[in-house]
Structures are given as structure tokens and as C-alpha cells.
Amino acid sequence: MLDALRGRLPGRKMPSRQTELVLIPATEHALHAVRHRCRQMVAKRALLSAGASALPVMGVDIAVDIHLLSRLIEDINAEFGLTPQQIDKLQPKLKVATYSTIVGLGSTLIGRAVTRELMLKILTRSGVKVLSKNATRLVPIAGQMVSAAIGFSAFRAIGNRHIEACVAVAEEMLKMQSSIE
């Protein structure tokens, strides 16, 4: 089941995250392509989150959301070249500029290792949605559909906000790289 959640097919090997060190997108076109791929990734995983939210069992959706969201954040960071390992490979000036841009944006998810505690904190920030999602689940069928819709929109909003924060950091890095060269 976890393989299905991760988008893996049985018998198909996925590339190791540690061996795939992608650099920050080098052009505006590459940046838009990465943004598009990440938005598709968010939409697919939001559908999985909605499916878990539709289940009438309390707590399953939170566990699935934490797992899906932590993997999503890691994958988005990797696509933009903003994992801690990728940032460490940058030139010293760019590394400092990257971290200062991240701090300036106030992002808690870019360039950091994603933990369950961090994901739980992010999910509890959208506490009203979680509470209403659980309350609507008590109404048979229609409540589960509303719960799934709330879960989908909350998950997608968190994912898309993170993409836009990564785009802002990557755009700043493009400016920094052009000024250094």
C-alpha cells in the first residue's frame, strides 16, 4: 500500500534521492517547467489525500497526510535544488545567499530536513479545516464527500504555497548567479 502512495509500481525501482542532486534551475524556462511538474505532483498527491479523507475512520487521514506531505515537500525541494544536500554543493556565496533568502521569506520547509513533527505543525496550522473535515465525516456519504473536498483543498494549498516559496528562492538565486558571473 505504501508503494501505491509513493507512486511506485511493484517491481519498478525508484532512483535514490541521495544520488539525484539537481541544481537550482538555471533559466526562467527551466524554472517554469519545474513549477509545472511540481504542481502536477501536488494535484496527484492531493487526490490521494482526499481519498484518505473520505474514509470514515478517524485519524487515518492525518497519518496519510503527514506521510504524503513530508514526501511531497522533500520532492519539491529536490526538484528546485533546495534540499540541504543540494544547497551544501553550492558556491559559498550562493549558499549564504540561499539561506538568507529562505530566512527572509520565513519558510520553515525549504532547505531543511522534513520531520513528522514539522509536518504535524503545518497541518495543525490549518486546524479549522482539520476540525471541520472530521466533523463532516460524521454525516454519512455527503459528509465524507465534503471531508474529501476539504482535505484536497487544504493539501493542495499547502503544496502550492511551498512551490511558490521555492520559486521565489530560485528566482533570487538566478539573480545572484547572473550578478556573480
Describe this structure as you would to a colleague.
By secondary structure, the chain is an all-alpha fold. It has one domain (28-125, 141-180). The protein contains 8 helices and no strands. The protein is elongated, with a radius of gyration of 18 Å. It starts with a helix and ends with a helix. Residues 1-6 and 8-19 have low confidence and may be disordered. It comes from Collimonas fungivorans. This is DUF697 domain-containing protein.
Strand-helix topology:
Layout: H1 2-5, H2 28-54, H3 60-80, H4 84-88, H5 92-105, H6 116-125, H7 127-136, H8 142-180
Quick structural summary:
The protein is mostly helical.
Labels describing this entry:
single chain, 181 residues, mainly alpha, DUF697 domain-containing protein
Strand content: under 5%
Average pLDDT, all residues:
77
- Main beta-sheet strand count, sense and barrel state: none
Report the strand count. Answer: 0
H/E topology pattern? HHHHHHHH
Number of domains: 1
Shape: elongated
Number of helical runs? 8
C-alpha-based Rg, rounded: 18 Å
User: Considering DSSP H and I runs of 4 or more, what fraction of the residues is helical?
Assistant: over 70%
pLDDT under 50 segments (min length 5)? Answer: 1-6, 8-19
Output the structural class.
mainly alpha
Distance between the termini: 48 Å
